[in-house]
Structure formats: C-alpha cells, structure tokens
Amino acid sequence: MNNPAAALSLSNISCSFPSSDNQSIYTAIENVDLDLETGEFVSIVGPTGCGKSTILNVAAGLISPSKGSVKVFGEGLNSINQHAGYMFQSNTLMPWRSAKENIMLGLEYHGLAKQEINDIAEDWLRKVGLGNFGNRYPHQLSGGMQKRVALAQTLALNPKIILMDEPFSALDIQTRQLMENELLQLCQSNIPDGKKSVLFITHDLDEAIAMSDRVIVMSAGPASHPIGNFKIDLPKPRDVAEIKSHAKFHEYYSMIWNVLRSEVMKSYSQQMK
Amino acid sequence: MITSQKKIITWQILILLAILIIWQIFSRSTNVAFFIGEPLVVFNRLIHWLFIEQDVYLHLGITLLETCLAFSIGTIAGTMCGLLLGLSPNLSAIFDPYIKALNSMPRVILAPIFAVWFGLGIWSKVALAITLVFFVVFFNVFQGIKEVSPNILANAKMLGANRKQLIRSVYLPSATSWVFSSLHTSIGLAFVGAVVGEYLGSASGVGYLILQAEGSFDINTVIAGIILLTVCALILDTLVGLIEQKLMVWRPASGSNEKL
After folding, report:
1. Complex confidence, ipTM
2. Residue A31: which of A222, A212, A261 has the closest Cα?
C-alpha cells in the first residue's frame, strides 16, 4: 500500500518510550502506515494523547521509531529530515532575535549569502503581513504575529514537506482563520519547484476538513494507529470560513465525527481513571 | 507618579539626615565616639582623601584594578567552563564532585596560599576574587545550558543547524542572558574578594588603608574607607546595569507589556 514516490511514507511505524518511573514501556503509536503524496494536504485528528505529535517527530527525524521505516521521496530517513520544515505547537522563536533575524535563522544555517538572506527575509516579512515589524523582538509581538514569524521562518527555507503541529491552536478564532487562509494561499501560490506537501496535526475537526485533501483519524492511545481515512473532495481554492457552509462539509463532518467520537470517549474515560 | 517619586526621595534624604544627626549626638561623648566614630571627622577624612591630600586615588585605583581583572577573568573562565561542562554530560558527571567540593569550600581561606603563590602584589587578590566570581558565573551558565528550551533546540535542528551553529546561535545567547543575571552578584563578589585580599595582607589598596587605620584604633578612617567602598560598589553595580540594559534590549522589561 505504500507508494514509493510519496513525499513522505511511514510504513509500519511503532514508537515506545520508557514510562516516567522507568518500570514499564509506554507504546505511543503502533503499526502506523501513512503516505503523504506530493502536493497533498493531510490532516491528522485524534483524541488528546494519541501520539499525533510522535508521528510528526518521526517524520521530522527528531526521534527514530522503535520499529518500521520512514522514507522521504523514496529514500530512507536516518537523521533530521532535510526536506521538511516543522512548525511546532509551542513558541520556538528565539527571544533574543528580532522578527527578521528569526526568519533569517534557517537561511544563515544553510550558509546563504548575506544579501540573499536579507532579501528573502524581507520578502517573507511582507508576505506574512509584518513588513513594518521586522525589528521587533518576539515579546513585542502579539501571539498571532509570533505565529506568522514562525510560519515565515519555516517557509523561508522553501521546504518541500511542511509538518505542522497544532500551529494555530493558541490563537483566537479570528486570527486563526486569517492564518489558515494565509497558509492555504502560501501553499498554493509559492510553487516554483513542485508543490508543497503538508502534514497537519489538529484536534479541531472543522479546521482539518476545511484545509485538507485528506483527513486521517487516529485511535485513542496508547498504541494508537490510524482508524479512518477520509478524502475531502471540496472545491479549491478555499476560504476556511466560507467552506464551512458548503453542503458537503457537514456530510464530511458527521462522517468523520462518527469515527472520532468513540475514540474521544475512550480517551476521556482513560484520563478519568 | 512623579510626585510619589519625589516623595520617596525626600523620605530617603530625611532618613539619612536623621541617622547622621543621631550618630553625631551620640558621638559627642568621647567614650562612645571611640567605638562608633564621628560623622564630621569621617566626612573630614573623606574630603582630605579625595580633595586635599589626594592620596586615596592610588589605593582606590589598585582595588578597582583588582576588581575589574578578577571580574573579567572570572566571568570569562566561568562562562567557558560552564559551556564546556554544560554541553558535555560526561565531563560534567566526572567533575561533579570536585566542583561541589570547591564550591562548598570557604574560599576566603585560600588567601594565605595565594599570598605565597603570587606574592603580596595585586595578583594574589585577583586570584582570591576570581575564585569567588568564577563559581557564581559557572553555575549560572551551567544551569542556563541545561535549561535551554528544547523547543528552540528542536526548531534550530529542523532549520538545519549543525552542532557548531547550535552552540553559536542557541546555547551561547541563552547562556549570555544567564551570565547577565549573575553579573550583579559577581561584580559585588569581585569587589569583596579584592578588599578582603588586601585586608589579609598587602601594601596598597583601600583594604590596606582600613587595616592600617584599624591597627591604630582610628575608627573614623575605617568608617571613611567603608563608605568609600560602598559608593564604589554602587557605581560598579550601576555600570553593570547600564551595560545590561544596552545588550539585553530583547528582554521584556519586567512589568511593562509592549505586546500589540
């Protein structure tokens, strides 16, 4: 079932960690098979603690799986995934660097020429609507602005694969819709060399359906694995606010929610123990 | 805001005056003045030192030189060792008991050893002050390295940083902020080290002046020396604060919220 040409291909991945008391082993994910086609936007939804972030960390090469293999454009992955940009859930901006310097970070690591770095950073500042805020430090920016800087920082390297871990969960609903639209636009427009493939984690089903080509539902942890795979056939380009009134949107919603609900209940009852 | 600021300063001056007046009243009896000195004589002494005989500048200069040398050497060495051990879990595990032992040792007691090693000149004082400064900076940097945000680290790795770039762009800057939080303590300790070193054996410096005066029960000169040292320590601390403000612009000022 794995496609060798996929941008990202996880086959039969399992991840176990020693639990905090070192007495037992906790299996976060088990037998996960997942393909991300080139140019595809895939969302993973699931109850809390279902190992969604673990999947992303494996795809990013930040942790190596206990079992199974990861392939990036057909090649095995042993270290950091060079083709991927990762936008974390938490704040990852360096407080001692201004917005622009934060965007320049990855470009500096890659050893680009100073002038080029500066041009790209300026360009991205404008693209995310922060043209006049380049000199501000993160603490002088609002939460939404910080997220935009983080987005620009990730995308400035022009990664072929974008991994996103609940990137907008901390934002208020208006800012969030703005950012979601911006992301969709950026993914669809900035395509000089092939389309972007996005693996997007969220616990918001609305967000998942509105943005994705495909939604994958994870079972409740431990040993969680995909239990549903839904192709979202909604017209593109989309506006996340408008698409929610589309007739098929509600069909998809109830279809996926039917699968997701029982897992959410399971996860909830486990936490109550 | 401004009025309350003014009020506070007025009160501060009033308290100072009250202390000086009470002190002066008590010291009118020569028996008491022998122990607590006399404000007017102390003041007189300071004026003589600073403006009339002008002989204190040499001593003050030497003490400050020792302080600055110890402060810079101690801070640099502490930062380097903190970085080295913070970045290498093996090294830190090996050296852990030695560092703990050195840190819990009452280091002022090393002064006689340093006097034998480095003589009675400035270097024995510098060495003593370094031992005080080094550990403060060292532990701060060490802790700072351990507490570098794992998110920022993972993000830097994803953006393509190699080990050298990680150290330069993540570890060093976050260690720097910890160094600065320790600088106020360490400049004070450098000063203490220098003065105590002089006090324990020397031929110049403010500590030496105090020691001399104490030998002849000249309590007024002792107090004048103490006042001089206090003022210098305050000035040094203010300087560090100014440098900190310049270099740490990115840090949110406490209490202020500039968020948009």
Report:
1. 0.84
2. A222
